[in-house]
Structures are given as structure tokens and as C-alpha cells.
Amino acid sequence: MCNCQDTLIPQIGVVTDVCRETADVKTYRVEKPGGGKLFEHLPGQCALLSVPGMGEAIFSITSSPTNKNYLEFSIKRCGSITTYLDDELEVGQEIAVRGPYGNHFPVEDKLRGKDVLFIAGGIGLAPMRSVINYMLDKRDQFGSIDIVYGARSREDFVRYQELTEIWPKQPKTKVHLTIDKPQEGWTGNVGFVPAFLKALQFTPDKTVLLCGPPIMIKLCLAALIEMGFKKNQVYTTLELKMKCGIGKCGRCNIGKKYVCKDGPVFTCDELDEMPDEY
Amino acid sequence: MFKIAKAKWPELWQALAREGQLYLPALVDGKTDFAPWQKDTKVDLLTAVTAKSLKQLFFAQVEPLMHFQTSGKKVAVTPQELPAQPTIAFGVRACDLAGFTILDKVFLKEPVDTFYRARRENCTLIGLACGFPEETCFCQTFNIDAASPAGDIQTWLVWDNLYWESRTGKGQQLTAKLAALLTEATAEDAKLVQAQQTKIRETLSKLPLGRLRFSPELAKHEQEVFNSKVWEKLSATCLSCCGCTYVCPTCHCYDVRDYAGKDGAVERFRCWDSCMNGDFTKMAHGNPRKGQLERFRQRYMHKLVYFPEDYEGTFACVGCGRCLRICPVNLNIVKVAKELEVDLHV
């Protein structure tokens, strides 16, 4: 038996399902090789996946903690590791996983009983999905749920079936979809998320969870402020380059905060206090 | 306190080497640096500042972490055994010893870095007072006493005698094993050591950086320091060679990399990295620290602002002065701190 229990040592998981979501996003289901979940997590936490020989990268866990059997990761083809995953990762393949890392959305206290507004753009739905399904599974602990989700086109929505057929049928739950440009057969909203938000005329008594590309976050935040929301009502989740996941390797800091351990979830007023370097 | 005369030092090194792998400052290729002791090692106890700090003893330049064996769809991981060999470091200066307490804050904080902890616990540290500080020394800025180095044992070199005093249980255990070589110091000897301590403190205070202080106000003005106009001027000449990082006793950024060998074998190791490297924070979709200014600012803000914010005002600098000596374009932490203090009026 090896004497080393270092936190940098991953577990081995096996891919039990691969779902093609969009042209460049797939959702991978990972379990222990003998079945069962690798570890417990809370919504918003992350894990480091590794392809031995290529290295590790950090991803948010997209499945809800209420799911007791597996972890899911929705991953967009973007860099070297994600391209490899997209091209090569198939059912039955073993993969190294360690986690969970970071803080989480405060589903156990501050979000209890609140009306919640989710705002996601593109692959930004991945970390939100963990929270949404958690809340839907514990429906009576939360108020109304509105999900505003924007994508480049109809084909770029991740989990389209869940968005259109499952979530809208839950009690006090509404899904508002928008695409960037008009498309044949699309009857929903067309336009960017910030403008869509204003058109939907949400009242500023909701707690907001916001995730998407940095430019979308900045513009949505401006729109929310205009609508009367306060920055401490708005939670977002960040992503930076990470190697260790435990606040030691020195990569993911913004000022004195390490995104891997002090984040990835921050309120927008917390972000205001940090240097503008993300 | 004990003493041991110069004629007996070779026996001392031999006796220490029997208790563990012995590292001491030695002349290698024309410069003094810590080296594993062998019979023909040219030990140098006079040079105060070795080329590199001793941080690699605990935070190895390359640390194998685990081995993967892949075969078809199967992946097996075997963690690297923790290092277990006892080590002894002799001749460690007060600044480098203080550097370890800074690295401890990072690596021994939960979750503990078990490789660092194993190497740290396996080592007995023997400090040596700085009889001849360099012109670039400024450890006294951080209230580090070069005349009384921390460690398990502290020693002083006065003329041809080495004076020896244990400071910890670990130090006492090692000292007990050397009883045959050490003789009890006299009251006269104690006076000699005291005189040397006074002289060292006096010498340090008269050095060019003898009165240097870093303002604790810097850590209280994170945003102002971040947005200061001095970064542009200061970073303009930096070559991002990372020399300062590698010789620094407190820099601890690391990379984790995989080496793919033959037949599905993969070694994952940790190695030193530097926040001054261009791709340090580069991601597939962009880089939050795009230019030299951002990277230069990060390194100095970490030492002067972020680290003190996190650790009750402790600067991540011990005044060893290595960055003053190694930088090819004359940049260093003293220059940066002073420019910032002037700009912020603190």
C-alpha cells in the first residue's frame, strides 16, 4: 500500500454515457468503474479531469448533487484537452478525476425560499444545470424559477429536450430562450441576452445566478443594475487556468482570491472589490 | 553550547552524512551553492548568499507525483511513494530558514502538500550565522536575525571554531549523536559568539539596504497598487527570463505536467513554474494576463500585497537579495516597493 494520499492523486472513473449536445458540446457521464458516484459535491463545484499523457483541466460538474449514481460534465470543444475528449472519449473509456473543488452556490442557506433568476449563455448553462436540477428536486425549498438562456442558434442549446420538455413543466418554473440571429422555424425570441432580460421585465426582488462568456456577464450585469437589481443579489461563477485546484500552484488568483478554492462562485459585489484581471 | 575546531570539520561532515543525506554550501563550477556532501566536496562556509536558496530540498524542482498505465480503455494510477530519506542541511542562513516558514504557510495549509511535508519532516536544519553579509542583504527589513538563525541547530563560525547550539528536540537528538566530536564551550567562547552577533547586526544595519523598510500600507491599498502607473515603467525592461523566480526562497508557483513514455506509461510530475511566463495563465479561450505588465505586476503584488493580505502582514520576501544579484536588467523587489510607496504616498 502506497503511503501517499496526496490530494493531487486522482481517482479512476469510467465513461458510461456520451451525449452529443451541439456541434461542439458533449455531455459525458462518469461513474466508478464498479458503478456509483466518484464523490459527493454541491452545485457549482468543479472537478479536474485528466487524460494521462495530455494533462488535466478543470470543469464544472453539470449533474445535480441529488443524482446519486453518477457525475456529468458538459464540455465544449475549445483547447487541446477538450478537443481530445470530443474526438476520442467514448463509453467504456476510463479517465482520471479528482474533486470536488471550490465553493458552491448557497443552495443550503442564502438561496432558500428565494425567487431565482438563472441567466446563461452558451456553455454557461453547464454549471447552472447542476443548481437548476437540484432546486427542481427540492422544489418546495425555493420560490419561482426563471431560466433565461441564450445561444448562437437553435442547434447550440445544450440539453434542448430538458429545456423545452422537462423544465417548463415543473411547478412555478419558466424557461425563456433566445438565439442570436433569426432562423427558419424558430418562433422564440431573437436577440442577445441583455436586451432579452430587459424585455422580460423581471422585478428586482429575485436572486440572480449568471454564467456565460465574460462579455455577456458584464453586459447582463449592466442591464440588471438598470432594472434595479443590486450587485450582491447576483451570483456568478468564474473559470481561470488551474493546475492544482487547491490554491497553491499560483495560477488562478484574482488579487488575493484563488478561483479554485475561494471561488468559482462569487457575488458581483465581491468581484467589484477584486482587481480587474479575469 | 558546544564547539568544534576546524581540523575536525571533515569528521563532522562525515558523522552528519551517516545520519542522513547531507547538503551544505560548496564551491561548484566557480560559484557557491548547496550540494550533496562527498569526501572531496569543497565546503564554503564564508559566502553568505548561495546561488540558489535551498527551497528545492522541500519543494523539489521536479517532483514525480504519480504513474499512469493506460492500456486500451483502461487507466491505472499508482501514486509516487513519499520521500522517506532523512536529510540534513548544514550552513543554512537565516533568510533561507525564514523562507521555509513562508513556504510552510502555503504547502502545510489544508489540504496539505504531502510531498513537501514529508521532505520537511525528514530534514534536520542547521543554521549558520552570517559573519560576512553581502552588500545586497536586507533580511533585517523583515526582522530576521542573521546573527541567530532559526532551524533545529544554530551555529556560528568564529575564527577557526564552529560554535553549536541546539534549538529543537530534533536538533538535540542529532547533537547527542555527535558527542564524541563536540566539546563544551566555555564562558569565554560564549563571549566570542556574543561579540560576533553584535558585529553581524551592526554590519547589516550599515549596509546600503540596512535601514530599508517596506510599507505595510501597500497591502491595505490593493486596488490603488494594482492601478498604479509605475507598473508600465517598471515592467518595460523585464525580459521575463524568470531568473528572479527560480532563485527566490519564497516563490512557489508550480506546473503539473505529463510525460508520455512507451507502451501507455505516463509519468505525471510537478515542476517549478513562474508567473512571469507568458503562457502561465493562458487558456484555450484567452489569457487574463496578456502582457509583461500584467505578469510583472502579479509577481510583485503577490509578494507585497496579496500575501500580506492573506497572512497577517507577512511579506513574501526574506531579504536574501538574490533577485538584486541575478536580474540582467537591474529590476528587483526593493526598486518596485520603493516606486510604489512614492506613487501612493505611503
Structure, described:
The complex is a heterodimer of chains A (278) and B (346). Chain A is α/β, with parallel strands linked by helices and 278 residues long. Chain A has two domains: 11-101, Translation factors (Elongation Factor Tu (Ef-tu), domain 3, Beta Barrel); 116-237, Rossmann fold (3-Layer(aba) Sandwich), CATH 3.40.50.80. Chain A has helices at residues 80-88, 125-137, 160-166, 193-200, 214-226, 268-272; strands at 11-20, 25-31, 46-51, 55-60, 71-76, 94-101, 116-121, 145-151, 173-179, 189-190, 207-211, 234-237, 253-254, 257-258, 265-267. In chain A, the strands form three sheets. A seven-stranded mixed beta sheet of chain A has the order 10-9-8-7-11-12-15, sandwiched between helices. In chain A, a hairpin with a 4-residue loop joins strand 1 (11-20) and strand 2 (25-31). In chain A, helix 4 (193-200) packs parallel to helix 5. The longest helix of chain A has 13 residues, at 125-137. Chain A is globular, with a radius of gyration of 18 Å. The N and C termini of chain A lie far apart (42 Å). Chain B is of the alpha+beta class. Chain B has two domains: 2-58 and 81-206, no CATH class; 216-258 and 275-344, no CATH class. Chain B has eleven helices and twelve strands. Chain B has helices at 9-19, 94-107, 114-121, 169-177, 187-206, 222-226, 230-235, 243-247, 292-310, 322-326, 333-344, and strands at residues 2-5, 21-28, 31-36, 62-71, 74-79, 87-92, 123-128, 153-158, 161-166, 183-184, 254-260, 265-272. In chain B, strands 3-2-6-7-8-9-1-10 form an eight-stranded mixed beta sheet. A four-stranded antiparallel beta sheet of chain B has the order 5-4-12-11, with no helix packed on it. In chain B, strand 11 and strand 12 form a beta hairpin. Chain B is globular, with a radius of gyration of 22 Å. The relative contact order of chain B is 0.15. The mean pLDDT of chain B is 96. Chains A and B meet through strand 6 and strand 13 of A and strand 4, strand 5, helix 6, strand 11 and strand 12 of B.
